[in-house]
Every structure is written in C-alpha cells, then in structure tokens.
Write a structure and sequence with these properties.
The structure holds two protein chains of two kinds. Chain A is an alpha+beta fold. Helix content of chain A is 35%, strand content 15%. Chain A has helices at 23-30, 86-94, 103-116, 122-128, 139-154, and strands at residues 2-8, 11-17, 49-52, 55-58, 72-73. In chain A, helix 2 crosses helix 5 (139-154). The longest helix of chain A has 16 residues, at 139-154. In chain B, 30% of the residues lie in helices and 23% in strands. In chain B, the strands form seven sheets. Chain B has a seven-stranded mixed beta sheet. A five-stranded mixed beta sheet of chain B has the order 13-21-20-19-14. Chain B has a four-stranded mixed beta sheet with strand order 1-2-3-4. Classes of the chains: A alpha+beta, B alpha+beta. Chains A and B meet through helix 1, helix 2, helix 3, helix 4 and helix 5 of A and helix 6, helix 8 and helix 17 of B.
C-alpha cells in the first residue's frame, strides 16, 4: 500500500492503494466517480476513457502509480456547467444512446479528438473512435453527433 | 462510499395499501386512490394508479415498470400513458418502478414484447386518470363530464370558459370512483405517440451520473469476485485459499459448490486475491471441443426426425425424379452476448428478508432465483432494477443473481458481485451453435415442388421456426429440427434461433432464385401470391403486410437498378410479429467487399418514438452484420478460446455502413422492434457478397471465409 496524490477534475485527492491499482478502480471505488465504466480491463473497449494531461486514455489499464502529477479529467469534470459541454449537447440533439454504458467513454474520446482537430472528417472520426466499442451499434449516431459538436464549438 | 441514489421501498407500499383496505382493483391492479392512503401525503405526488401520480404543482410522475436495457422503454412506456392522460410532456417526470407483481404485469425486457404488451393497458391507465380529473372538474363546476375536454394538463369547460389544471384537481380527482370503461384516442389524434421525444435519462447518461448496476454501492457492502471452473465439465478437486485470505483488504473466502467467492473492501483487492487461490480442477463430465460439436451437428443433419415440426404434403417424394435438386448446409457458431456492462448484482440476504438491486432484464426470474436459494417467501424479497449496460438476452437468465444471493447468505453481509469481462465471456449462457440443411426440389420451369429444412442445434430446443415463409406457399414442405444436449450452457440471444436461422433460410432462397434465373424480390412476391391464392396450412404472417414491406424496401433501394460496380443483396423476414425487408449494397475494393449502404423497410405497426425506433433498427442490423462478420466462440477441451475483446472481435465504427430506415405507415397495433431487424441482415449481406464476388457464404463468421472488410 502507498499513498498517492491525484488531481482529478481540479480537486486534489489523497488515496491509499496498491501501486498497481488501475486508475479506473481508484476513481470508482475510492473517489465515487462512477462515470468511467469497466468494460474489459485491458484497454480494448474504451468505456473507461478519461483525459490525462488532455489525452484520451484508458483508465482500466493504467496503474495509479503512473499518473504522477498529470491532471485527470473524468466525464464528471468534462463540463464546468454539469453536462453542457458541446459534445454532451450534441449527443442529446442526435439522441445517440441505447443502453448508454459506453457513451461516457465515447464522449471523452470525442471531446479529446475535437480539441486537437476541430473539423474532423468521417475518416478522422473513425480513426479517433476506433478504440471505443458500442455494443448497441450507435456508431453512425456517434459520428453524426461529433460533426454536430464540431459545428457548435466553432460557432 | 456514496449512498444509493435509487430507492424503492416495496414493503412500505404494501403497508400503505393494506391500511387503505380493499382498494379499487380494476383491470391493471390499480392501487387505492392516494387520498385514502395517508393524510400526511397530500404535499407529495398523488397516486391515481400504478402508473400515474400528479402533484399539486402540476408535475406528473409516470412510473415505467419495465427494465431499461437500451431500448429506450423508459421513454416509450410513459409516452403511452402521457398520450391518453393528455398531459404536458415538459412537466412529466419518469420514475423506474421496482418489481411488483401486485401492480404490474410482464416486467421483462425480452421477446420484443414491452410495447406490444403495454400498448392498451398503459394507454388505459392514462385515460382512466384523465377521466377522473375530468369528473372532478365537472363535479366542482356542476357540469356534465361530457362537456369537458382536456389539453396539456388542463381540464376545460368550453361553455362556461372554466379551466383547472391537473395539479389543482389532483387531490379531488384521486378520490373519484375509478371509471370502468374509458375510450382511447384514435391514432390520428395522437399528440405524443409518434413524436421523436428525447430519451428521458439522456442528461444523466452523458454527465456520468446515471447509475448502472455496476455503479451501485451500499455502505458496508463487500466487493466480490468468483473463481469458476476453467472449462465446462470440470469441478474442484482441491482448494487452498490461505494465500488469498492473507491478501490485503480481503474479508472472506467462501467455497460454494464448484465455485469460490472472494470478498473484500475493493474491486482491485478481490481481483488480486482471486489470482492467489490455489485450485486444482478435475474432469467432472465430458470436455467438449468445437470439432466434436461440428461433427455431432453434421451427423444429425443426415438423420430424419420421427416427428417433424411441420409436414405439408410429401416433400421427400418430390425430390425423387425432380428436374433439379438444390442443397446447402449452413453453420452458425456459439456466441457470447458480451454486453458492455458485464454481469454483476447486489444482494443483501438477511434472516427474514432479502434485497436485490442490479441489472436484470427479468426481475421476476431474479426474484424466483433468490427465493429458491434462500428459501424465503417471495413477498419477503425485493428486486429493484437499475439501468443496464446492454443485455441482448444474457440478463434474462439469473445465474449471476443466484450466485450473489448464495454468497450474501453465506457471508451474512451485503455483497456486490462483479464478473470481469473474462468471467462474462467464458462463464456460460451462449447463443446455441446450430447447423442447417436446406434442400429444394425444382421442376423444369424452376418452380419449387418440394422444400426441406433440417436443423441441428446444441441446447437450442427447436432449432427451426417451422412456420416461417415459404411455408404456406408450398404444397410439399418438410421442417425437422434436432436438439443435442451439450454441457456448454446456452440461453436466449437477441432474436433466439431466428438470429442464425434467417441467414440460412434467406441465403438459400437467394440460391434458389439464382439457380432458377429469377429475381430474388419477384420470386418472394410470387411465393406470397401463391400463399395467398392457395394457402397450405396455417402461417403466422399476413401476406399483404409482408408484400408491402418487401415492395417498400425494393423501391427505396432502387432494387435491380444499382449503378455499375454496386451489387445488391436482398432478404426479408418476419419475426416478433414484425415484417422486415432489407437491401445491402456492396462494392469491391482491393478484392474485398465493402458495404456502401443498407436500406431497411419495417412494418411494426404504429411507431411510438420514430427516432428511438430507428436507433433499435439500426442497432439490430449493426449487431447482425458485426456478428456475421466476426463473431464466434470456440471451445477446446471445454474451455472457451476467446475471453475478451482482444480475441473476440466486436464491430467498430469504421465497419459500420450507412443505414436508411423506412417504415410502412399504418395504424395497426405496435409489434416488436428490439430484435426483428437483426436476423435477416446477414443474409442480405451474404447475398450481396455473392453477387459481387461469386463467393457464397454459408458459414459464420464470414471472416473465416476470407472476407475481411464488409
């Protein structure tokens, strides 16, 4: 067991955990932030996606000891206005979800993409979202919502 | 730890009902009216019936009784009630009901049945509450109820100009006698049904606040994972749990049956401790491999069945001396369900009661499983459904509920059981593997004079749907299906049996069309005409609805007129009382087929929420294409050879084609929609690939046949 200081959604937390504990379980079990989901545990499905230093990362396969001082943003902290990030608004406009379990991870991947590439093509989106599975098959809606969000961010 | 943000206190409801006396049990088990229940309540929402509560401030609370698995039922069911209640949707709050057989029927997310089964009862619930509001207003104004009308949560009396909101009337209205006969709106008068209203939980889903079963926590609960046999047919020989028990954070290690539960303070700690269990396994029954399964099904396909599922005329005789005989065999593998949220559940078993909370498509089954394990009477067990991260049929089973109930009982503690992805994929309950032999006897003109379908599946029950089209159109038709027992556990998987059967059937019809030089669409239409003019036996499908759906898909896809280099495949299928016809268009790029477009026509009667309906339809087809392309679970000596998304490929965004959806417009009662578009799509794809490449696909996944990119 060791103590780690994490900066999550702008707040500093001290957590005591084994060094190999994946960030996902720190967020979920220790900090009560359950927006990042468990889907595979091996970084294959993207339901656990968070931003670390602005990069979309799979928190299920990332040990807490590797985070260091890098700021972590989870879905709970994506918008300062509680769910009104342009990507979240676009998701609502397109009414994307079915079960919704993967969508927080999809939104985090999409937000990271749009930060780097404000006008992504379909191909850019396919590439950036390749790590996020939606078992319900809402992919076309996700792609459409990313285009809607891109327009919102620009205007 | 946070406290749970869902709450359903079934016992307090029962207590209140009991003090209210007999209540008014009409039709849907209405609860007694709220004013009778408790004088302390008027500030709170006033209960009209099991579905409707109205607060004095005009907020309408609608109860959604069925589990939400992504079909957006938590939006659709309240829409049915709100339509007839004539309330203002912007003032509606939706609450998930827990399992309660005294108030609700069929609290199941399965069989594409939630909307069909609730179409009349839920509208009646809304109309009944509306009539009580009208009656209260009429009494207050001393006018006839027949002179009053409603709109957007207001009762009006036109002659006098009097108006009252539902909120103002709620207290009085709830004391009115419950009307026995209420009339329902005509389809043309719908204001809410037929609108693409947004899903009611969107905001929570998008900001991470939505609680799924996996997210549920209770102060003092123990996290739990279970070690299960590594292969079907194995059992524990010896167990040494000393190292696991000594790991940090571990509270208990419990053996139950051939499983070992590890309980502790956090997810990661129980996962690590499970790895430290020393378990020696031994063979209990037989260790089966995919090669054994394939050989068994191939053998069964050579054998007639003594009592066929359907026999019209004498098909076998027609094969003797037929001008031409076509024969094809189709092979479908086991599939895991792989919902994004793996199995998990919370249980707290006490001396005299038990509480269950989690992701289930079938809370009634969860209740019965818990009653069986604990011996408690069913009325001492409560079940609350959380939103589910998918199910696809997996959560109709309650094996994981039985597990956690057993563990909580042994541990004497509240327990949250989680399955890892590997547990979920290797832990059993799969889409059964099945093989099919299809044969057609043809005359010199290319007419089908004899038709023979023979199926063989593993723990599938009946592998056929023997009344499927073209049954009904053919004088000589034989359907016979074998079931073989295996120790690989199976269960319903989205559109059970149909999900692969439709591929075999609709691919074979395409083969017949090609062999006889007919257009696949026209051949189906001709067979339908044949079934209309000279019906043979009984069939479940309606000829005109099937025909309209096929014609709509053909028209919208510009069937038969694809530009050069674009190849079309067709498929049409009836299941869950819904009619589906699909055209897939492929091109060939770098020697590989690539889907350019999917066009789907659907007749599911009245569409409650068009955008959510489209989402289901699209999702069904993406699911069908994905599994046809990539899905297979194989076994070696009883052990599944795929265990996570690195070895089990799920369709991703780049593989997903553009999809067009068209509804056959009518005013008929709604039919199922969660499943019917999945079964035929892989045949439409396979038929298009044949046109494009000359490769006839008869085995799934297609990726095993050298097809990579479709």
């Amino acid at each position: 067991m060791a103590e780690f200081t994490l900066k999550v959604n702008g707040t500093k937390y001290k957590v005591e955990a084994a060094a190999d504990t994946p960030l996902l379980w720190i967020l979920r079990d220790h900090l009560g932030l359950t927006g990042a989901k468990y889907g595979c545990g091996i970084g294959q499905c993207g339901t656990c996606t968070v931003h670390i230093d602005g990069e979309a990362m799979r928190s299920c396969a990332l040990p807490v000891s590797a985070i260091g001082k890098a700021p972590v943003i989870t879905i709970e902290g994506l918008s300062s206005k509680n769910g009104e990030h342009p990507v979240q608004e676009a998701w609502h406009e397109v009414d994307v979800p079915q079960c919704g379990y993967c969508q927080t991870g999809q939104i985090m991947s999409a937000a990271a993409l749009l930060k780097k590439n404000p006008s992504p093509s379909d191909a850019d989106i396919n590439t950036a979202m390749a790590g996020n599975i939606c078992r319900c098959g809402t992919y076309n809606r996700i792609r459409e919502a990313i285009h809607v969000a891109a327009k919102k961010i620009k205007s | 730890m946070s406290t749970p943000n869902i709450h359903f206190d079934r016992r307090s409801f029962l207590k209140v009902s009991a003090t209210a006396g007999g209540g008014m049990l009409v039709g849907l088990s209405w609860t007694a009216s709220a004013a009778e229940l408790d004088e302390a309540l008027p500030a709170d929402p006033i209960t009209f019936n099991a579905f409707v509560k109205i607060s004095p401030d005009g907020i309408v609370t609608l109860m959604s009784p069925n589990p939400e698995v992504g079909q957006n039922i938590k939006t659709a069911m309240p829409m049915l009630v709100a339509e007839e209640l004539d309330c203002d949707w912007t003032k509606v709050m939706v609450e998930q009901a827990g399992l309660d057989s005294t108030k609700y029927t069929r609290q199941v997310a399965g069989g594409s049945g939630s909307i069909p089964a609730s179409w009349k009862p839920l509208r009646t619930a809304g109309a009944t509450a509306r009539q009580m509001l009208i009656n209260a207003a009429a009494k207050r104004w001393s006018v006839s109820p027949a002179e009053c009308s409603t709109d957007l949560g207001v009762v009006m009396h036109k002659a006098s100009g009097k108006k009252a909101t539902y909120g103002e009337l709620a207290t009085e209205a709830a004391t009115m006698e419950v009307p026995k006969d209420v009339s329902l709106k005509a389809v043309k008068d719908f204001k809410i049904i037929g609108k693409s209203l947004k899903a009611v939980d969107n905001k929570k889903v998008f900001n991470g606040k939505q609680e799924f079963g996996f997210d549920f926590k209770r102060e003092g609960m123990l996290y739990c994972v279970v070690a299960r046999p590594p292969a079907f047919g194995m059992k524990i020989k010896t167990l040494n749990d000393a190292r696991a028990k000594s790991m940090p954070g571990i509270a208990q290690v419990l053996r139950f049956g051939n499983k070992v539960a590890v309980l502790g303070k956090s997810t990661w700690e129980v996962l690590k401790a499970r790895e430290r269990l020393s378990i020696e396994w031994e063979v209990d029954t037989k260790l089966e491999s995919t090669a054994d399964h394939d050989a068994k099904m191939a053998e069964l396909l050579t054998k007639p069945l003594e009592k066929p599922q359907r026999k019209d005329g004498d098909a076998l005789a027609k094969f003797e001396g037929a001008h031409k005989v076509l024969e094809s065999t189709f092979e479908g593998p086991f599939l895991p369900h792989a919902p994004m949220e793996p199995m998990n559940f919370f249980a707290h078993v006490k001396e005299d009661s038990a509480e269950l909370i989690g992701s289930t498509q079938n809370p009634g089954s969860a209740l019965r499983a818990a009653a069986q394990v604990t011996g408690l009477p069913e009325n001492k067990i409560s079940v609350m459904m959380t939103r589910m991260g998918g199910g696809f049929g997996r959560r109709l089973n309650s094996d994981f509920v039985s597990e956690v109930v057993e563990i909580s009982k042994l541990a004497k503690a509240p327990v949250k059981l989680m399955w890892t992805r590997e547990d979920d994929m290797t832990g059993g309950i799969y889409r059964p593997a099945a093989h099919y032999l299809y044969r057609a006897a043809l005359d010199a003109q290319g007419n089908i004079i004899g038709f023979h379908a023979r199926g063989a599946g593993l723990n599938v029950g009946n592998p056929l749907r023997e009344n499927n089209f073209p049954a009904g159109a053919l004088t000589d038709y034989l359907a016979e299906g074998h079931n073989h027992q295996s120790n690989i556990t199976t269960g319903p998987w989205r559109a059970p049996v149909h999900n692969f059967l439709a591929f075999a059937e609709q691919s074979f019809l395409d083969e017949i069309a090609i062999a006889t030089g007919k257009d696949p669409v026209q051949m189906r239409l001709d067979l339908l005409t044949q079934a209309e003019k000279s019906p043979v036996g009984t069939v479940p499908y309606k000829i005109d609805r099937f025909r309209n759906t096929i014609e709509l898909a053909a028209k919208k896809a510009n069937w038969g007129k694809a530009p050069a280099g674009v190849f079309q495949g067709f498929s049409a299928y009836f299941s869950f009382n819904t009619y589906v016809a699909q055209v897939v268009e492929v091109t060939v790029e770098a020697g590989q087929p690539k889907i350019k477009r999917v066009v789907c026509a659907v007749d599911c009667g009245v569409v409650v929420n068009p955008e959510h309906a489209r989402n289901q339809i699209e999702g069904g087809m993406v699911d069908g294409i994905g599994h046809a392309m990539f899905g297979q679970l194989t076994f070696k000596d009883g052990t599944p050879e795929q265990s996570n998304f690195d070895t089990y490929r799920i369709i991703r965004m780049a593989d997903t084609p553009p999809i067009e959806v068209h509804f056959v417009e009518n005013e008929l009662d709604p039919t199922g929609l969660g499943e019917p578009t999945l079964p035929p799509i892989s045949a439409a794809l396979g038929n298009a690939i044949f046109r494009a490449t000359g490769i006839r696909l008869r085995k799934q996944p297609f990726s095993q046949n050298g097809i990579k990119n479709a």
